């Protein structure tokens, strides 16, 4: 009895096994079918060969100085001024004579003021700023976020300060230009309408031959200016969405984020002179042969080592924090390698061989005050209750001076 | 034992039926393209880049580039004149990044608008024809602005109508793809997406920057470089040999060269990387959810 039992039970077990294998296969098929349906599946198979071939085509050599998109003249195409030289008589260095003795004739670089007017005033007092002999440089982001952007702007303009364009100046100025553009279009439209009206009334007079009132361009300009300035102060005009321009109906600009709203508000408050002054700030302010710092480049955010100044990505100069580890492409994220780290490493390699370049910058509040041999990071987060820092360069030495700030922004 | 066999048979049967259902569902999804509004004569390059209604022949290298240049110029000039807010995107933006021109191996152009602009475009300009004369007066072209009736749907859906509108050169059938971006997720204000899973922060798009593209005034997103790096990875900003072209550092142009492979050997970066990586992760999560939901 035991013998025939085996052959009958064996097939049952193997059949069950067969079934379970079948079930497993169809379950896998089912799960796969649901996980990767249609588009995604096609898309995956398309991506794979690319990843493979691209590795061959582009391998970024970390030691090779990389000219990413070499000389795209990006700054020119964005309408930004790339570099400006500080006049030689303002640069402290060996063998130069300054008004008022040895200790004067300094360059004072201040980062990220962000409208913290009182702090700026007390910092200038602390470094005993002398408008006659000292040259003040703002390393960008002097406006926005804080309470007194326009007061800061007027003070530094009054002192004839040098400046570089920060990411916040950049945003505000783009808004400003667009608002101006809109106003211009509106004016043109108004003019057209008036002309039409005028023509009509002329026609209704049955062309009596009376010449239309002489167009006085000067008068007209004055009127326009008054009109514009009034608009500047008119609180009802603060948001584009309130414009009654029928043409703008096609572009219901979705200005909805807090940043867009506050930026636009500040852009509306800028006077023409303030905007013109800001717009003249280059991306890089260059000082040749500065005491023992060598060449000094003041920028807002940073520079990529090994890339010529004119080949640097104009936008990244105002925004970068770290570099992509493979290609040294700059990004505003903080998860790569700090650009300053690369800068110092590479500059140290050529120590004792020719002139070095030191970069003074702001922007990186998260990294705080960051003074290294060839880079000086000055953003010590004043607007969020940190400190406002100045880097003071005199002919013999440099020092870092700072004051405490109110805790203005809390987020 | 009997119970086990019975159980396994039920499971197997169920799986087979489901699998068949999925298969037929997928079949439905892929082949007939019933819902697809814009039709092209083919599915791969180059025929996928022509509009079926106007397609006659595949243009040669020079004619195609010439047609694309006028397409770009005419679109930018028309939108400026009509006060339609638009900015260049994807591969076209990448071309701008390199030298302000079209990438010479590209087959179509990409621009974006806000979803509100898209709706108004549909109301006011759908199926409108526009005449264009080049600056030097030598080239006369006609363009059709065709708005996809599926613009009301702001998510991917079946994936056949991710292009919201087209600016078509009626002479050749080459076109500009126009996509709208909108807020579709109420829990993520300030985040915009197109229908093909591209996500944008509002602050990365606006304020738009003024620049020139193909020597015509154009607008680009505020944070153009971060957008490009997210969409194409850093390689697209670094590679200097691509699709039969080499970047000329002297003239700042992409020159056509014989020693750089093109075509099937090196598939077009633009077409492949245009689908962002987010597709995969969100696809899996979404489909796992669908799987659970099904059960």
From TrEMBL, chain A:
Region called Disordered, residue ranges: 177-261
Membrane-spanning residues: 16-35
Ranges annotated as biased composition (Basic residues): 182-208
Upper lineage: Eukaryota, Fungi, Dikarya, Ascomycota, Pezizomycotina
The organism of origin for this protein: Discina gigas
InterPro entries reported in the protein's UniProt record: Ap4A_hydrolase, Calcineurin-like_PHP, Metallo-depent_PP-like
Gene3D superfamilies: 3.60.21.10
Transmembrane among keywords: yes
Domain annotation Calcineurin-like phosphoesterase: ranges: 106-189
Domain of life: Eukaryota
Biased composition (Acidic residues): 223-235
Protein name as catalogued: Calcineurin-like phosphoesterase domain-containing protein
One matching Pfam family: Metallophos
Record's keyword terms, sorted: Membrane, Transmembrane, Transmembrane helix
Automatic annotation (TrEMBL), chain B:
Membrane-protein topology: Single-pass membrane protein
Coiled coil: none
Pfam families: LicD
GO molecular function: glycosyltransferase activity
UniProt signal peptide: 1-19
Annotated TM spans: none
Domain LicD/FKTN/FKRP nucleotidyltransferase residue range list: 80-184, 193-232
Subcellular location(s) per record: Membrane
Keywords: Glycosyltransferase, Membrane, Signal, Transferase, Transmembrane, Transmembrane helix
Domain of life: Eukaryota
Protein name, per record: Mannosyltransferase
